[in-house]
Structures are given as C-alpha cells and as structure tokens.
Amino acid sequence: MKALSVIYDVTALCPWDCPVCCMGASHEETCRKDELTAEQQLGIVPQLAELRENGYDVKIDLSGGEIFTDKAKHLPLIHSLSETLGKDKVGISCSGFGIDAELAGFLSTYVHDVEMTMDVVPYRPYPLRPVGYSVAAAKAVSLLKNAGCEVGLQTVVSSYNSSFADAFSVFAWCCANHVDNWSLLRFFPSGRGAQFPEAWMNDKTCEQYVHMVQELVRNCPSEYKPEVDFHYSMPGHIKYSETCRCVCHSIGILPNGDVVACFWALDSSTGIVDPKFLLGNVKQNSLLEILNSPKAHYWSDCHHGCELAA
C-alpha cells in the first residue's frame, strides 16, 4: 500500500482573517461562491474509497478556512468519511472555533484526532494572529480532552515566536493540559503570509530552534509530556528532508474541488501560484484518474526540491 495524505480545505470561510492565512480565507460569505455543494463534497468519499481499492493507504485531514463555520454541511461529511475509511484515517485541523461539548463528543466518535494551532500561549499578543486565536484553541482542548479525543497543538514557527520563552511557554501549556501531540511547523510565506517575508526562518536559524526545543523537552521535569513532532521541512532532526513530497506523499483539495500538488502553492485569494501545481478537479475526474494523469506524474516520477522555495 502506498501512503497518501489528503488535505481537504472544505471551505474558505473563517471568522479570524489571520494576516498569514496560507489560503486567503475570509469571514465574508462571498468567499464560498465556488465551494462544492454538500452533495459534491460527499461525492469525494467514494473517490477516496476507490483510491484505497487501488493500493493507496489514504488518510484525510479536513481543514479550511474553518470547518465548523458550517456544521450542518460538514458533520455529515465527517461521518461518511469515518464510516468509509475508518475513524483512524480521519483527522481535523481547526482553530477550536465552534467546538462545544456536543461537538467534542461527536468528534471523539468519528475522528482519530483534532489538531489546533497555538503559536503563542493564550493572551500573549502576536502580530500574525488575531486576538483570541489561541484562546479559542485553549478552550477547545479542555472540551475535547473531556470527551476522550486525541488532541494535538501545532505551532507555526516564525521569527516572531522562535524565542526560548515562547517555545517553553507553549510546551509547558501542553504539559499542563495533557495535550497528546505538539507539532512544530516551519512558517511558509504562502497566501497572505507572503506579505511577511521577515517571518521566514532560514535553515541555520531553524536548525538552532529545533535543537533548542529538543533540549527543552529532554530537560523538562514534567511527569506528563506530549509527543513532539517536527515537520520534515525543519532541519535539525531525523525526519528532515529536502525532497518535495508533492503527490508522492500528499495532495490537497481546495474548496472548489481543485486538486493541487501542494496546499501551500496558493496566493492570497486562494489562486494557484503556477499551473503546474493544479492537477485537476474532482467534479470532472476522480482522484484516481487525477493521480494517474501526466500532470501528477510530473511530481511523482522524479525527485524534486521545493519548487516554491526555488
């Protein structure tokens, strides 16, 4: 079986309007004008099942925008994916927005894990996120843990939050609140984030940060520690790789059904930065057909460095 991670941004609607949103999500309802209908979204489920029948070990992560801005549309999708692929193959990436005790119970039944972003601890000012962003995640962690969910927090590491004090405070928060996984992702200047080139950390600085966190975790006396996972693009740890994972390991699906080789290859209005990253659309072709297309084979048949960073 060939492992394939599918990141499906189900909607561009989001209440936060983060300055660094990688897909240009917005609180304006007009951003949904090209979004797949509920029926079309559910039509992706048998396409994923077809991939599995043809040798793909598929895991899907549902994101946005903010998935829980439309529970009526997206909860049936979560249920269908879980029933078809299995709970262990379905994850949620969100901000914590809209999660209450009832939704937390639903998620504990139908998804493997819920991951939220906490770049800095709650109530600490941070120029790349709106006020309240980390607070929403903090409130949701408690509800999700009480419901029995596996909970992860992701920190997008930039020059604005790479100090020891920032890393220590988020890690300590994870320990105190029994977060299961702390994931560290390198800031990438895509979407609206392209307006903050100074937030990008070069390889040397990024490696120094990784070693600092590794030392922090080793020396932490806490009885409880989350699993710590560094993204493969961050030098300084065993998973680091300069090889692009487009199509070989992952694809993205945008709210309008476009299938992309890289979910970071977007401009501030969720447009594709270069036609070579657009593989097809689920309304015209199945995911299996798209992955067997010449455009997909450009990415899967040879080794690439990151063509966005080139």
* Major β-sheet strand ordering: 7-6-5-4-3-2-1-8-9-10
From the spread of the alpha carbons, the general shape counts as globular
Q: Give the helix tally.
A: 9
| Poorly predicted segments | none
Describe the 3D structure.
- The chain is α/β, with parallel strands linked by helices.
- It has nine helices and ten strands.
- The longest helix has 17 residues.
What is this structure's SSE topology?
Elements: E1 2-9, H1 38-42, H2 44-53, E2 56-63, H3 71-85, E3 90-94, H4 101-110, E4 113-117, H5 133-146, E5 151-157, H6 164-176, E6 181-186, H7 203-219, E7 227-230, E8 250-253, E9 258-260, E10 278-281, H8 287-291, H9 294-300
Parallel strand pairs: 1-2, 1-8, 2-3, 3-4, 4-5, 5-6, 6-7
Antiparallel strand pairs: 8-9, 9-10
Helix pairs in contact: 2-3, 4-5, 6-7
Characteristic terms for this protein:
310 residues, 10 strands, 10-stranded mixed β-sheet, alpha/beta
Question: Outline of this structure?
Answer:
This protein is α/β, with parallel strands linked by helices and about 300 residues long. The chain is about 30% helix and about 15% strand. The chain has helices spanning about 40, 45-55, 70-85, 100-110, 135-145, 165-175, 205-220, 285-290, 295-300; strands at about 1-10, 55-65, 90-95, 115, 150-155, 180-185, 225-230, 250-255, 260, 280.
